[in-house]
Design brief:
Chain A contains 13 helices and eleven strands. Chain A is α/β, with parallel strands linked by helices. In chain A, helix 2 crosses helix 10, helix 9 packs across helix 10 and helix 9 packs across helix 13. Classes of the chains: A alpha/beta, B mainly alpha. Chains A and B meet through helix 9 of A and helix 4 and helix 5 of B.
């Protein structure tokens, strides 16, 4: 059986392996792992050149999972993602064979999802939700574990199709990647400007173990008063009209509790703590809150508003 | 799981006992304070103090028992923080993670001292307050401290009407009868008694026959016709009134 207290060591080993390739970004890696443990998906907002692809590729190696990358463009078709029926000839006989698309992987990086057309976005989101794709009359189950990390560029909005709020709500977390601090950037420069041999990445978790961890995550208990605080926090985003135009749905409450459970497991705890909720509230709520004009006028970000709400409702 | 349930049951029972003890102490303090204040005004001191004590005890006990949490124990034992509450909320849930939590909490509870259940600081302050209040009560009663005699004040207020004075002493039918004092004076039967009514108590005692004070209300009602009874009642009512003044 899995020893929960020792799980912290397992995840520390994952971070250690990741650090062989990726400099810093501990929070980003943690949040990606939380989304994966919750059997859900994440939206990553970052500027170009911050190592998104490198991070997710390395993570797939550490966890011994398949990885594929979809570069979204306006001419990307749904079949380019899901796959298509092709005619194959074997022994003089012709038959249709399903050619799997890049979605048939354990970890999928949908780069710059807002550059794809709404039709293609919908195909991807449907696959994320249902964990299956239907091509022609056949439904194909996706491999498990299945995780989509979609990225959005916060700049250069011309010619893009920004995801509507209802679509972004389907992502459990919105992970924000900031520029690295000076020390980290210096390390990145040193590491990648010299000739170096490829790092030997050790596999830490297999698919089966990860699926077991996903089951374990849902079993983590949360005290009634903490669950009540979570509901109050999410409800406050709907009632706090001073800075918020639209608040989060009950899906956010579910997401916050689940993410807090996953974060607890990652830290080797068999119960949810206030710290877990505090830590997860930002990535869970930031894409589910739309600020009003007053907040924008005051130069407030969604994280500032979330901070105020947490201060008022999380004891 | 059974072991954990027993542990939680024991914790809750101990908490209830502590709450009962604290409520008794708090209520006793309230009793002493109300006894002291009411005593200063001589206003139904015993009756009201006991009533206040009982109401406060019932309300506080109900409120404290229903709002008790494990937070106090967690605060005194930080290694149990959030764990104990979570484990208690999931005492009836069976799964791998919860079982691990239960066994971890059970192990941690072994080193929890019983003093975690009692707020010693609060109890000390409460006991000190009780000692001080007792001292005040003793001082007030031994020195007959009285700010204002509310009970006497209230009775003098109620004596201003004849009807109030006689209420409870004689049947209402007699009180409601419309008879003037002049009529009583003119009554031959009473005049025969040749009684002189004075404000002076000594004179009243001299002239009134002794057996009048021995007679019960019932005996008057039995011997005399209704009208006479009314006269006599009114008459003695007046005597009592002047006598008290």
């Amino acid at each position: 059986m899995i020893d929960i207290e020792k799980l912290k060591g397992t995840f520390d080993a994952i971070f250690k392996q990741m650090n062989k390739v990726v400099v810093g970004q501990r929070d980003v890696i943690e949040q990606i792992l939380v989304a994966m443990l919750c059997d859900n998906n994440a939206l990553l907002e970052s500027y170009p050149g911050l190592g998104k692809t490198l991070t997710i590729n390395t993570l797939s190696q550490v966890m011994d999972m398949n990885f594929s990358r979809i570069q979204s463009t306006p001419d990307l078709m749904p079949s380019d993602i899901t796959g298509t029926e092709i005619i194959q000839e074997v022994g003089g006989k012709r038959f249709f064979k399903f050619q799997e698309g890049p979605i048939f992987s354990n970890i999928v990086l949908a780069d710059e999802i807002n550059r794809a057309t709404p039709k293609t976005q919908s195909a991807l989101l449907e696959a994320m939700q249902e964990k299956q794709v239907t091509v022609g009359s056949k439904t194909h189950q996706l491999d498990r574990p299945f995780f989509v990390l979609a990225t959005q560029n916060p700049i250069e909005q011309e010619g893009t199709y920004p995801l509507p709020e209802a679509q972004t709500d389907r992502f459990l977390l919105k992970i924000r990647v900031d520029y690295p601090p000076y020390e980290d950037e210096l390390e990145i420069v040193k590491r990648y400007t010299k000739s170096r041999k490829e790092e030997n990445i050790k596999k830490i978790l297999g698919k089966t173990s990860f699926l077991a961890l996903q089951k374990l995550t849902k079993q983590v208990p949360i005290a009634d008063d903490l669950a009540s605080s979570v509901v109050k926090i999410v409800a406050a985003t709907r009632t706090e009209k001073k800075h918020i135009e639209y608040g989060a749905s009950p899906r956010a409450s579910i997401g916050l509790i689940l993410a807090a459970k996953a974060y607890a497991i990652m830290n080797g705890r068999s119960h949810v703590s206030v710290k877990d909720i505090e830590k997860m509230a930002y990535p869970i709520l930031r894409h589910r809150i739309i600020l009003n004009f007053e907040a924008e006028r005051q130069g407030m970000s969604t994280d500032d508003v979330i901070k105020d709400i947490l201060k008022a409702h999380l004891k | 799981m059974h072991e954990f349930k027993s542990a939680i049951k024991e914790i809750r029972e101990t908490q209830n006992k502590v709450i009962l003890l604290m409520t008794i102490l708090k209520s006793f303090l309230i009793f002493l304070v109300s006894f002291f204040v009411l005593g200063l005004f001589n206003f139904y001191t015993w009756g009201l103090s006991i009533t206040i004590f009982m109401i406060f005890f019932a309300v506080t006990l109900h409120k404290d028992v229903n709002s008790k949490t494990l937070l106090e124990i967690e605060r005194k034992n930080p290694f149990l923080m959030e764990k104990l509450r979570t484990a208690a909320d999931y005492e009836n849930v069976v799964n791998y993670v919860v079982s691990r939590l239960h066994s971890s909490v059970l192990n941690a509870l072994k080193v929890v001292p019983i003093s975690s259940f009692i707020n010693l600081k609060k109890m000390t302050y409460l006991l000190l307050a009780i000692v001080m209040a007792s001292g005040l009560v003793l001082f007030a009663t031994s020195n007959d401290l009285l700010v204002y005699d509310l009970e006497a004040g209230l009775s003098s207020l109620s004596f201003s009407t004849d009807k109030n004075v006689l209420e409870g002493l004689i049947p209402n039918s007699l009180l409601e009868a419309d008879v003037d004092i002049e009529e009583i004076n003119e009554d031959a039967l009473i005049n025969e008694m040749v009684l002189t009514v004075n404000n002076n108590n000594e004179e009243r005692d001299l002239y009134l026959p002794d057996d009048i004070f021995d007679q019960s209300d019932k005996s008057f009602e039995e011997l005399l016709p209704k009208k006479k009874r009314i006269y006599i009642r009114k008459y003695f009512g007046e005597i009592r009134k002047y006598g008290l003044e």
